[in-house]
Amino acid sequence: MNDYLQVNRANWNARVPIHVGSAFYDVEGFKAGRDPLRPFEIDEVGEVAGRTLAHLQCHFGLDTLGWARRGAEVTGLDFSEPAIEQARRIAAECGIPAKFVTADVYDAPEALGERYDIVYTGVGALVWLPDLTRWAETVAALLKPGGSLYIAEFHPFADVLDDETGAKVTHHYFDPGPHVWEYPYTYTGSEILEYQTSVQFRHELGEIVSAVAAAGLRVEFLHEHDHTVFRRFPTLTEDGGVYRMPGDAPRIPLMFSLRASAGSAPPPAADSPASSSGPTA
């Protein structure tokens, strides 16, 4: 547990060159104008032109740069220096103005040194964080008064289902971890990773919403979606670029999105006496 950050950083550093060269991320398509953002995200976040946006756990920044193309003044943060180097390279090659910073997400207020109109976190981010209370406090410290947090994530309910069909409950829902995984591949293909160990943490939907609310943010909506962005189970069928349960199979939540707003008074800093959690590493 004490080494989770170092273990995960090595794992994600190893993923960077594989991901950048993968068809899954399609960097060349992005350079040619492909939009990496999901349509429901664009609709739910709303107009971003002229607004400042911080993307936490941005990986190598395609989604960050997608918001920049829509007019946002973007800053991406990630704990992987190779990922940030790639983000800066892609931004420069595309002529997109963007700032990228290497830091752990819990250190974001100090590393970024400013507040934002929007804090955005994309799919597959929360599972890498052991302490959502501290994470939500970090987000609150980054928001301007009246600013908003937006999350688009995989629904935790999908993690209780069997991997073969997605039709049977075979795993515990209340099972926070840490879960240590040894897996030779990343999700983009068959190239073997140099560092194959990762540490992940499961968070129930109630835990996520409660952490956001406890940080002083007002939840505006929580939407559950019956589709996901990849074939999570072999039985899922593609439908307009997303994946759903087939035919007459029961519809289940596969993703969720949440938006919450900061009040008019600035929130306390994440490391202030008002913060209820200490260091995690």
UniProtKB/TrEMBL annotation:
Pfam families according to UniProt: Methyltransf_25
InterPro entries assigned to the protein according to its UniProt record, in alphabetical order: Methyltransf_25, SAM-dependent_MTases_sf
SUPFAM superfamilies: S-adenosyl-L-methionine-dependent methyltransferases
Gene Ontology terms: biological process: methylation
Signal peptide annotation: none
Sequence ranges of Low complexity compositional bias: 271-281
E.C. designation(s): 2.1.1.222, 2.1.1.64
MF terms in GO: 2-polyprenyl-6-hydroxyphenol methylase activity; 3-demethylubiquinol 3-O-methyltransferase activity
TM annotation in the entry: none
Protein keywords: Methyltransferase, Transferase
Disordered: annotated span: 261-281
Domain Methyltransferase, residue spans: 58-147
Matches recorded under PANTHER family: TRANS-ACONITATE 2-METHYLTRANSFERASE, TRANS-ACONITATE 2-METHYLTRANSFERASE-RELATED
Annotated protein name in UniProt: Class I SAM-dependent methyltransferase
Record organism: Nonomuraea insulae
